[in-house]
Amino acid sequence: MGMLVDGKWQDVWYDTKETKGRFKRSQSQFRNWVTADGAVGPSGAGGFKAEAGRYHLYVSLACPWAHRTLIFRKLKKLEDTISVSVVDYLMVENGWEFKTRDGATGDDLFGLDYLYQLYLKADPTYSGRVTVPVLWDKQQNTIVSNESAEIIRMLNSAFDGITGSALDLYPPDLRHEIDALNAVIYDKVNNGVYKAGFATTQEAYEEAVTALFETLDMLEERLGISRYLLGDTATEADWRLFATLLRFDPVYVGHFKCNIRRIADYPNLSAYLRDLYQQPGIADTCNMLHIKNHYYQSHKTINPTGIVPVGPVVDLDAPHAREKMKRAA
Ligand SMILES: N[C@@H](CCC(=O)N[C@@H](CS)C(=O)NCC(=O)O)C(=O)O
Known about the structure:
This protein is an alpha+beta fold. It has two domains: 3-163, Glutaredoxin; 172-285 and 315-324, Glutathione S-transferase Yfyf (Class Pi), Chain A, domain 2 (Up-down Bundle). Helix content is 35%, strand content 9%. It is built from ten helices and nine strands. It has helices at residues 64-75, 115-122, 148-157, 160-163, 175-190, 192-197, 202-222, 236-252, 267-277, 288-298; strands at residues 3-5, 8-10, 55-59, 83-86, 91-92, 95-96, 128-129, 134-137, 142-145. The strands form three sheets. A four-stranded mixed β-sheet has the order 4-3-8-9, with helices on both faces. It has a three-stranded antiparallel β-sheet with strand order 2-1-7, with no helix packed on it. The protein has a two-stranded antiparallel sheet with strand order 5-6. The longest helix has 21 residues, at 202-222. The chain is globular. The protein starts with a strand and ends in a 31-residue tail after the last helix. The mean pLDDT is 96. It binds glutathione (GSH). The record marks 252, 295 as: Lowers pKa of active site Cys. InterPro entries: Glutathione-S-Trfase_C-like, Glutathione-S-Trfase_C_sf, Glutathione_S-Trfase, Glutathione_S-Trfase_N, GST_Omega-like_C, GST_Omega/GSH, Thioredoxin-like_sf. GO terms for molecular function: glutathione transferase activity. One of its GO terms (cellular component) is cytoplasm. Residues 171-302 form the GST C-terminal domain.
């Protein structure tokens, strides 16, 4: 674990001294947008036109933020349009590494050893964290974006003229509700588990874990009324939640001490998790070996022995019966 400072790699853990033990996630710095015609998007510079074969995604199969982008690539039928490299599951003194084992592909574009070297190709004086996912432009040889929330929005619409996909996971009439739910779920759940797990004071941990379970309780109730968060059809909000729920019982309950309840203890949330998991193509994007090995072996401050627990047994292929649910009137 580490970061780049003025283009030099430094092996440092998260600093929580200034924040009374609270983990504060840094803002992603590459914020350009691929658009259908190459026009400038909501932020950054223009010039990134959607074209088949031009862009490459760097992901970790362990990382929930990267997982969203893989799910969108799958659902939006972008597998022939956007290529992918998968980093190794271990993230230790040199950060994310390229290796070829257990589904990690190595760096297909440049044969690099470490992801930080890719960041340096985009900006030789970069300072900041070296995170996945990264959307890379093979034409301009630079990073388009390293912000998953924005990459999935690009994948949702920019390439439709190429793929012919009509699926809209961020439909105009639901945008307001999706944004509102995303804001709560990001803070309390997606990032909430990290705030609990990386807290270095009891107070910071309890604050995060309490808010996390209050939000899961709220979502459990909501999913007793409708099949998905916003009705009969899954949207971006559901896929963003899915990536965290998938990792919850196998990792966050133990490793991040998010153990007031398990997802298995919530009838609606656990059936909903299986419902999403069983949708066509989704299981292919889920890799429990990367997920468990990454967290338990990379975060040595939390789990110094690096022992990976054998359980729990979670049967994601069990029936979910959620197709019977109807949206409340
Ligand atoms: N806001 C970013 C966060 C991505 C992120 O934090 N990824 C983690 C992996 S789960 C990472 O690469 N961490 C490396 C680090 O913080 O040094 C996004 O959603 O794309």
